[in-house]
Amino acid sequence: MGTQPSESAAAGGDRFLILVVEDSLVDAMVVRERLERDGRFNVTHVATLAETLERLSQGVLPDAVILDLNLTDSAGLETFCRIHDPFPNLPIIILTGDHDESLGIKAMRLGAQDYVGKSNLDGQVLVRSLLYAIERNKRRMVEHRQRAVDRELQFAKQIQEYLLPNDSPEIPGFDVAGRCVAIDSTSGDFFDFIDHGDGKWDIVLADVCGHGIGPAMITVGTRRLLRSTAELYEDVGQLVTIANRGICEDTFQSLFVTLFFARLDSNAMRLTYVGAGHLGFLIDSDGKVAELRTRGIPTGVDPDYTYQVDGSVELSAGCIVLLMTDGIWEARGDDHVAFGKERAAEVVHRNRSKPASEIVAELISSVTSFCHPHPIKDDMTAVVIKSF
């Protein structure tokens, strides 16, 4: 019958609650005596289907039911179905007589966990059947919950992917692309492109502290706050200041959001930016790297913090602006050495003749190869702004 089932409930001092549904007082007493002799079971007895349904409807379900199909107020498989249909997650073991073993088999096809013949009611058989039934049901419930969680995570992933830009923006004089790679079903990273319709674009890179569904929910709210405030404020420092107040309302104290917010004016070939725990990198045509340093604290920490514009740079032809989350430069390989910001900038410069989307793909691929055979441990997001 496979491996021995877990007996942790009884071993830990807990006892399994068993409901015996049997209209024969003698048979019920035999079952009770043999189970209580084992020491791991508390047994309650009822004699009719009506009593059974009334007791189950009170809310405290037993760990298992031992059921005689033929009662004074119900007979055959209908007895099983009347209990199983409203309580499908309740393990039921069928008690069968000498001539109705086939009913036990049919009940198992309908969802019963096992059947035991009344002529074979020794304690060992009954106890083993109960323990296996309870254990199988626990495992089934865990698997059921896991499938439900997986479905919810897949749905959350689809929503998050839908909110990321599907296509690179078409900006005169620039080639811009971004990519987000999550280590879980959902990501705490995101990027965004916001078109103002006058040659100006807002470009956002953000990283919510942590991984999984919680940070992913924060990314959705943060994205919406930034998009809403982007329409209202010309000063990007003021914009992030206002957005930060909303982010503080939406996050726990331990969940903060680092971000780099840049406004690209394609007519003036100028990038104006503000950082909240993030910096950027400007790589010229010769491969020289200049950090776009920022001073702001992460958003979601202090609702009264005032963000200021950190800088404004002119982007001449051949320049590349690289934005990336720390999942890229902090990724570590066999020797525990980090991939590093310098290596990331070198990969971008080496591939500068390629489209921005391919540069981003080469960067992500380089990090993955660098870490192999070890798994990536953090979300990775990068945005490349290439001027021509």
TrEMBL record:
Record's keyword annotation contains Nuclease: no
Q: Which residues carry this modification: 4-aspartylphosphate?
A: D68
Q: Which residue ranges does the record assign to the Response regulatory domain?
A: 17-133
Top-rank taxon: Bacteria
Q: Which Pfam families match?
A: Response_reg, SpoIIE
The EC number of this protein is 3.1.3.3
Q: Which SUPFAM superfamilies match?
A: CheY-like, PP2C-like
Keywords assigned by UniProt? Hydrolase, Phosphoprotein
Q: Which GO terms describe its molecular function?
A: hydrolase activity
Say yes or no: keyword Transcription regulation present: no
Q: Which Gene3D superfamilies match?
A: 3.40.50.2300, PPM-type phosphatase domain
Q: Which SMART domains match?
A: PP2C_SIG, REC
Checking InterPro entries in the record gives: Bact_Sigma-Reg, CheY-like_superfamily, PPM-type-like_dom_sf, PPM-type_phosphatase-like_dom, Sig_transdc_resp-reg_receiver
PANTHER family per UniProt = STAGE II SPORULATION PROTEIN E, STAGE II SPORULATION PROTEIN E-RELATED
Q: What is this protein called?
A: Phosphoserine phosphatase RsbU
* Organism in which the protein naturally occurs: Stieleria magnilauensis
Could you tell me the gene encoding this protein?
Answer: rsbU_5
